[in-house]
Input
Amino acid sequence: MKFGIMINEGPYTHQSTDTAYQFVKAALAKGHQIHRVFFYHDGVNNATRLTEPPQDDRNIVNRWSKLAEENGIDLVVCVAAALRRGILEENLAKGFRISGLGQLVESGIQADRLVVFGD
Amino acid sequence: MTESTGGIEVEEETAGRVKKFMFVNRKAPYGTIYALEGLEVVLISAAFDQDVSLAFVDDGVYELVKGQATKGIDVKNFSPTYRALEGYDIEKLYVDAESLKARGLTEENLIVPVEVLSNEEMADLMAGQDVVISF
Output
């Protein structure tokens, strides 16, 4: 099955991006495809390369970058939501790209299921 | 159009596919950004010629209340945008009856024409959708 993923909360404060990550990993392990991961609302904060969590904690941002690199996953950050929160090309982590909301709607159309992670 | 749609040539990428999209609004219009940014997704979806509907449940019914006055909190009153949805051919607005009642509201308190549904009717409607995005 082809999944589209939407993440609506930022890292660490909310668990939704962790849950989404586990979901994506599990889906890939089962042979499913990930059409796209779309970051919206505070979810855009998952895309900044400036985060530095304590060493004994998971690095949520790097984890997404690594997963994207290894599996060719399209990580898209909403431009309007990103600009509002200071997420710019210059501080974007590896593997993420900034684009418009149409990328989310398109994912809803192209994927078999669009799964939303948020509050 | 390609800028607002994220560089997507709508007709090429969707190949004429029409899916049923429902946007579920659950939050009060102010206090968090979910309602405002949610509405931005709704407006973009109109460019993709999909079968779009909106549901308002829980505090989401407050998004449609008449007479929103936001000067005191220095936040833009975006409620007139709901009236503009008709111009985007988004005319299916459903409101949960219990949520209205629990907040002492009636259809007359709302800024746009809506269809008021019971829990059961709302659940049936949701079950029939291809894509459900909640804010």
